[in-house]
Amino acid sequence: MQTDSSNSKNDSNDILGILGSPFYTESTKSTNIRVTNIDVNPTVEVTYTGNSSIGGSSTQTIGTIVDKMNTDGTISSKGLAIILTASGQVITYRSESIGTYNPDGSFSDSGVMSFNLPLKINSSGSTSFSSNSTNSLYTQFDNLLGIYKKTVDPDGNGLTKVWKWK
Fold first, then answer.
1. Structural domain includes residue 8
2. Is 102 in contact with 80 (CB distance < 8 Å)?
């Protein structure tokens, strides 16, 4: 059975149109790759760093993702990252996705991210572990769920775009 790839591309564009603009983007570079399993499901751990933007503010991202190769050729990924803002605010996210390695050596996946503020910076600059802080520009990203699309080229340069799950 033949499928019309233009229809799936149009469907993807329709979905992205409904979601609006991404609230978070990151441009990253893989800094280390480590094989952690070669048995039934080969697994690699990738660390990355890069520039990012959340809610229009420039940030830096440090993260680790574990890619597990499935028997059907897909890749199941789970990641953790820290986003650092210019004001010292720390935002974290956890990600889970399904993706594929492409014939040209690039990687593409789509999934979900859960954002949190483990440390709140209040207007006086002090740190709190309270989840009820309302003084931070970034509290809107606490307990926020997003859906994302990521591409990584064969050289390890990644681009991730995240939209709020409404």
1. no
2. no
Range of the domain at 116: 22-164
**Which residues have a Cβ under 8 Å from the Cβ of 2 and sit 6 or more positions away?**
none
Give the tens place of pLDDT for each residue, 40-58. 899 999 999 999 999 999 9
* 97-123 per-position pLDDT tens digit: 999 999 999 999 999 999 999 976 665
Residue 6 within any structural domain of the chain: no
- pTM (predicted TM-score): 0.82
The total domain count for the chain is 1
Cβ neighbourhood burial of 138 (10 Å; 0-12, 13-18, 19+):
buried
CATH code of 115's domain? 2.40.160.20
Strands (E), 55-106: 57-69, 75-85, 90-101
Residue 7 in domain: no
Q: Is the dihedral of CA 23, 28, 32, 38 positive or negative?
A: positive
C-alpha 104: how far from chain center:
22
CA-closest candidate to residue 157, choices 17, 28, 22, 1: 28
Do the domain assignments include residue 89? Answer: yes
